[in-house]
Amino acid sequence: MKRKKFIKILGSAGIGLSISSLAQSCTPPKVSKIKKGLPNYWIWMRPSSEKSDDDFKSEFADIRSMGIEAVLPQIYASNKALFNIEGYETETPLLERLIPLAHEAGLQIHAWMWTMPCNNPRIISEHPDWYAVNRKNEPAHAHLAYVDYYKFLCPRKTDVREFVQHRVKALANISDLDGIHLDYVRLPDVILAEALQPNYNIVQDQEYPEYDYCYCKTCRDAYKDKSGIDPMEIQDPANDKDWYQFRYDAVVDMVNDYLVPAARNKDKLITAAVFPNWESVRQQWHKFDLDAFLPMLYQGFYNEDIDWIGAETKKAIGRLNNNKPIYSGMFLPHLKTPAELEKAVQSAKDGGAKGFALFSYNDLNEEMKEGVRSVILRQ
Ligand SMILES: [Zn+2]
After folding, report:
1. Nearest residue to 110 (alpha-carbon basis) of 176, 16, 185, 33
2. From CA 217, how far away is CA 224, in angstroms rounded?
3. If you measure from the C-alpha of residue 209 to the centroid of ligand 1, how many angstroms do you get, rounded to a whole number?
4. For residues 318 and 220, what is the distance between their CA atoms, to the nearest angstrom?
C-alpha cells in the first residue's frame, strides 16, 4: 500500500491567528484562501437556526483558525429542511445564510443531508409503501428498529430514488455550495455495532428478521424475476451471497444512477459518511462513484482501540483500489485528550488517509481545539 502524504496547509498558523483576533475585535475577517478541490480537514456540525450571523461568523473563524478547511453543516435530518426546496417544509433557509459566512471565513461548505430515513409525517401518511420492510414483513415507518427515527425508505423504488434525487438536485442548484455530503445512505443495521447493542438491551449474535431489510414487494418481485426465488423463502439469508449482493446493489444503483449525476451536473463535489462494518448496513460503498469517502471510524462503538482507525483506513483504501481519497472520520467523544487525537491522526495517516473529518464541532472544548490546531500545523 502506497502511503499517501498529508498536504500541508500553507500559512494556516498566520491565517488562524489573524482571523481569531479580527473576529474578537468585531472587524470583518479578511478572506483567507479557500482550499481548491477536496479539503483535507473537515468538521461536521449541527448548526442551530437560533444563532445569529455574528455567532456563525465567530464559529467559522474559530474553525478556520484550527486549520480546518471544510464545514459540513447538517441541513436535512429526515423531516424539515434547513434550505429552500420545493415540495418540502422548510424550517428556515439556514444553509443559504451559512454559505457566504463560511466562505468569508475561508472554509468550503458541504451540505450534510440524511439520505434514506424519512420522518416527514406527510410522506408517512401519503406514501407508506415507500418504506423498507423487514423479514417479518413489517414496514420501517410502523415497526421501528432500535430508535424512532429509523424510518428508512426502500432504495430500490423509483419513486424513492426520485424523491431523494430531488433533494440532491435542489442542493446542487445552490450556486455557491461546494459539495453535497450523504449520510445514512444505506439500510438499517442488521447487526448493530457491538458496543451499542447493550444500549438497546439486545444481543445480536446472528441476523434477526426484525432488523433484516428489505423484503418489500418491489424488492421481492425484482429478486423473483431475476432468480426465480422469493427472498422470504430463503432459509439462511445471512449466508446467501446473491441475496446480499442484490440488496447492496439497490443502494449502489441509487447513488450512482440518481444522486451522483444530480450533483455532477452542477459541478458539485459529492461525498458520504460511510460505515467500516459496511456489510451490516447493506452499504457497499466502495462501489459508490463519489469524489471521496469519510468513513466513520468511531473505535469506541466497536470496542476497539485507536490503532484500529489506521487499520480500517488501510482496509477502506484497499477496497477502493486506492483510487479515491479517504478522510478518516473521528468521533471526538472517544478521543479524550489532544494526545489521543494526535495518536488517531497518526494512525489514519499511517493507514493512508489524505486527511480527517471530526465529529463534531459541538463536541470540542478549548483544550481539544488547541489540539486540533497543533496536529494540523504539524502535518
Ligand atoms: Zn424494498
Report:
1. 176
2. 10
3. 15
4. 33
- Annotate 335-377 with DSSP letters as a single string: --SHHHHHHHHHHHHHHT-SEEEEE-GGG--HHHHHHHHHHHH
Tell me, in angstroms, the distance from the centre of ligand 1 to residue 139's CA.
10
Q: How far is the CA of 65 from the centre of ligand 1 (A)?
A: 45
**CA of 156 relative to ligand 1 center, distance in Å:** 6
Phi then psi for 274, rounded to 5 degrees? -130, 165
Cα Rg of the chain, angstroms? 21
Whole-prediction pTM: 0.91
CA of 219 to the centre of ligand 1 (A): 4
220, three cell numbers: 421481492
- The kind and range of the H/E element at 23 are helix 12-24
- pLDDT at position 129: 98
Distance 223 CA to ligand 1 centre (A): 10
Q: How far, in Å, is the centroid of ligand 1 from the Cα of 201?
A: 27
DSSP bridge pairs for 134 = 213
- The residue with greater pLDDT, 190 or 97, is 97
CA of 131 to the centre of ligand 1 (A): 7
Ligand 1 midpoint to CA 134 (Å)? 9
Instruction: Name the nearest CA neighbour of 225 among 244, 240, 239, 246.
Output: 246
119 alpha carbon – ligand 1 mean position (Å): 17
Domains of the chain, start order: 1-114+296-379 (3.20.20), 118-166+187-266 (no CATH)
Span from the CA of 72 to the centroid of ligand 1 (angstroms): 30
- Give the chain's mean pLDDT: 91
Taking only the tens place, the pLDDT of each residue in 71-91 is 999 999 999 999 999 999 999
Q: How far, in Å, from the CA of 211 to the mean position of ligand 1?
A: 14
Pairwise CA distance, residues 216 & 222, whole Å? 10
> CA-based angle 240:246:248, to the nearest 5?
100
Residue 368 grid coordinates = 481539544
Which three cell numbers, joined as nine digits, stand for 100? Answer: 457566504
Judge contact between 132 and 124, C-beta under 8 A.
Answer: no
